[in-house]
Amino acid sequence: MFSNATKRTTTQKIIYIILPILSLLLIVMAYAFVQRKLPMLLPDAAGLWNRFTKTFTNPIKNVNLIGHILASLRRVMIALAFAWSLGILFGVLIGWNRVFKALFGSIFELFRPIPPIAWIPIIIMWFGIGEFPKILIVFIGSFIPVVINTEDGIRLVEKEYIDVGRVFGANRTQLLMEFVVPTALPAIFAGIRTSVSSAWTVVLAAEMLGADHGVGALVTRGWNAGDMALVFVSIICIGIIGAILAYVLNKLEKVVSPWNN
Amino acid sequence: MEQLNGLVVENLSKTFYSSEGYFTAVEDVSFTLNDGEFLVILGPGRSGKTVLLNMIVGIEEKTGGRILYNGKEKTGIHPDFGMVFQSLSLMPFKTVMENVELPLKLRGVSKKERRKTAQHYIELVGLNGFEKSYPHELSGGMKQRVGIARAYTANPKVLIMDEPFGQLDAQTRYAMQNEILRIWEAERRTVIFVTNNIEEACYLGDRIILLSDCPAKVKAVYPIDLPRPRNMVAQEFLRIRTTISDNTDLAI
Amino acid sequence: MSLNEKDLKKGLAEFKENKRKETLKYVFLSFIGIAIFLIVWKLIVDFKLLNVRNLPAPDSVLSTLITKVSSKNPDGNTLGANILASLQVSMSGFLLAVVIGIPLGLFMGWFTPIDKFVSPVFELLRPVPPIAWIPVVVVFVGIDLKAKATIIFLSVFVPCVINSYAGIKLTKRTLINVAKTFGAGNFETFIKVGIPSAMPMVFTGVRNALGGAWSTLVAAEMLAAKAGLGYMLQVGRNVGRADVVVAGMATIGVLGALMALILNLIEKRILKWKLDS
After folding, report:
1. Are C189 and C179 in contact (CB under 8 A)?
2. Of chain A's two ends, which shows fewer C-beta atoms within 10 Å, N or C?
3. Which chains neighbour B (Cβ–Cβ under 8 Å, 3 or more pairs)?
């Protein structure tokens, strides 16, 4: 009986190792099959690799692949720095003060349902296609989730934490800074996490719609030139950076709020 | 005749209103707290005990009656009152030391001074060595010790404890009951201790105020004259316990 | 000094009156906030307070919105036609992804072999924002409804699967054990215990996906389309009609908010039914 059970788990383990490999193999095979049929539309492995190295030997707009990635990341970082500081501040204010919430939260609610990408045309009309308009668009896309999550976090702080503060004589500022904001940190962090993935999407859209540098610009360039290998190299970079950003945030969250499991 | 010293609670009531109607949690509760006394308020499950305490400490508005402290009407928070909460109340992002020193920090006491006081109470509750730990790293009993140390650091004249041991397992609970008596005897502060456990009430209290089930009204008052440490299986102890138990509408 | 019913009734009436006044006060303040916003906007435009060209005033946006109901300028479609085109695309992609994505996520979360087989594909798809796929989809499928629906599908599919998966993984072990003790098989437990307890998370996924879908749709229509609200924005920009662009943004915002509202109502209904049964 006992050996039987162990045997079953061993077979199970082997199957569980084989299945993902099988699945990845099938993807590769399907890709290869379609690629054979439509070599113009899909690059093969060698084509991808060559296109990848070519981005360094033959830079696009004087900038190699790393340079384009850094251009995108720079826009994201600047926009996030503003979105986090202003977004947390605004979220705390509307979460904490009902008059403030009624006065300014209502204006925020007007803008909230407009997808950040829909801002791109008007911002290009206003400010052209330089750095500032792109950063502004990314800022809009990341500001909104930070505000929403911060406000929720502040508003939903358990009453007992506030009671503790009041019993020990905290004034309103102390209540906010010593009790409410720290307790809302996990929610604020959820907003920060959403803001990062949103920023990454929005920067791509902004770059795809008009930019010289940045991974999004590479996608559009490859697309317009019928250079699908470049499109795929860019998409792979985008995916890898997206994954790295998610990973870094997970690690960061554990450092920032170790009590939150 | 109004008493000039200590705490007098007169006809205290609390009714909650909502759009669906109203609900009275505390009705017409009166008692006097003697200086240095260990007063136990005993009531069934959700009988409005916490509401009563919150009104006394000043974080809940009363809808009727008044509270006199040192001859003056007490409204809102008063620095002479400290509280140990039921649960959940330690700041998860602060270490044991930071939690315990918090009341002094709020009063603007210098870091060196508040650390010294906090250290004293951390040692008093037997948590030396855990100053740098976070609450989630501690057991339930240890967390309550932190809560008690924090309340003492605030240097209250009246310490209010709201079912502090409700979440603990029986073993830890017995240990903590002895702990709390030891600390009380060392520090000699007036204590209001709330519980739903008759045995705990008889073991700890100088006097027990028995509340009825919702709304909370004073049903009976029992002075307990037994010497400490009390023996939970002694004849006299069991007799008092049975008397109270027969008079309780405990639904637990 | 005991409490009597008359006093309590009076207290209740007082409470209700105060509450009504309070609500009224905040509603009033909200209107003030929005009014201030509109007035400041109008003043900025009229007195050219910002050094920005192409800033339409709120009233000109409103009049454009009204004329656009019947006018085909400048993008060749009336507002209604654009709305219809956008809704058609987003809804077909959205519904397809929800119908396929949720069951897949639920199955993955419950049956480990399926999980092991499917999740590698997901881990590959997940970090790539759906708009990055637009060129690939356009090259393969074109720029018709099917193409854009495919992109929307991608953007909705991933959050639906991930949340359904996470939701069913959170099913309480004790609930499963209770079901099995009463003799339910694995599949029956999945249907009767797993799925209902996953529902709240599933809805979170659908709600996130809806926002993502609407946003992706706008991007897709700006990059490749001949109709739709995103296309209207793009044409408005190209011909320098800022009033059309802002009117388009307002429409997108209102429709987005409406869809979120409808989803909330559906969620309340379904989750309530779950509670009742």
Report:
1. yes
2. N
3. A, C
* Mean model confidence pLDDT for chain B: 87
Residues A68 and A195 in one domain: yes
**Whole-number Å distance between alpha carbons of A32 and A27:** 9
CA–CA dist C127, B31 (Å, integer)? 65
Q: Which residues contact C11 (CB under 8 A, 6 or more apart)?
A: B15, B17, B22, B63
- Is 0.85 exceeded by the ipTM? yes
Query: Using a CB-CB distance cutoff of 8 angstroms, which residues of chain A are in contact with residue B59?
Result: 163, 166-167
Give the residue from chain C lying closest to A206, CA to CA. Answer: C219
CATH H-level, domain B1-80+190-252: superfamily: P-loop containing nucleotide triphosphate hydrolases (3.40.50.300)
Question: Which of A148-157, B43-52, B56-65 is the least confident region?
Answer: B43-52
A170 and A195 in a common domain: yes
Closest CA to C91 of C156, C31, C20: C156
pLDDT value at B96 more than 60: yes
- What pLDDT, on the 0 to 100 scale, is given for residue B251? 52
The helix or strand, by DSSP H or E, that contains position B159, with its residue range, turns out to be: strand B158-162
Given a contact cutoff of 8 angstroms between Cβ atoms, the answer to whether B85 and A179 are in contact is: no
Q: What is the CATH number of the domain that holds A193?
A: 1.10.3720.10
What are the helix (H) ranges across chain C? 5-46, 58-68, 79-110, 112-125, 134-141, 145-169, 173-181, 186-189, 195-223, 229-238, 242-276
> Which of B17, B27, B65 minimises the CB distance to C12?
B17
- Could you report the per-residue pLDDT of C59-93, keeping only the tens digit for each? 999 999 999 988 887 888 899 999 999 999 999 99
Give contacts of C129 with chain A, Cβ < 8 Å.
197, 200-201, 204, 238, 242
CB A246 within 8 Å of CB A61: no
pLDDT of residue C121: 85
Pick among A157, A162, A163, A168 to test the B interface (most B CBs inside 10 A): A168
CATH superfamily of the domain spanning C60-276:
MetI-like (1.10.3720.10)
pLDDT number for residue B252:
45
Residue A258: list chain B partners with CB under 8 A.
134
Write the pLDDT tens digit of every residue in B164-183. Answer: 888 788 888 888 898 889 88
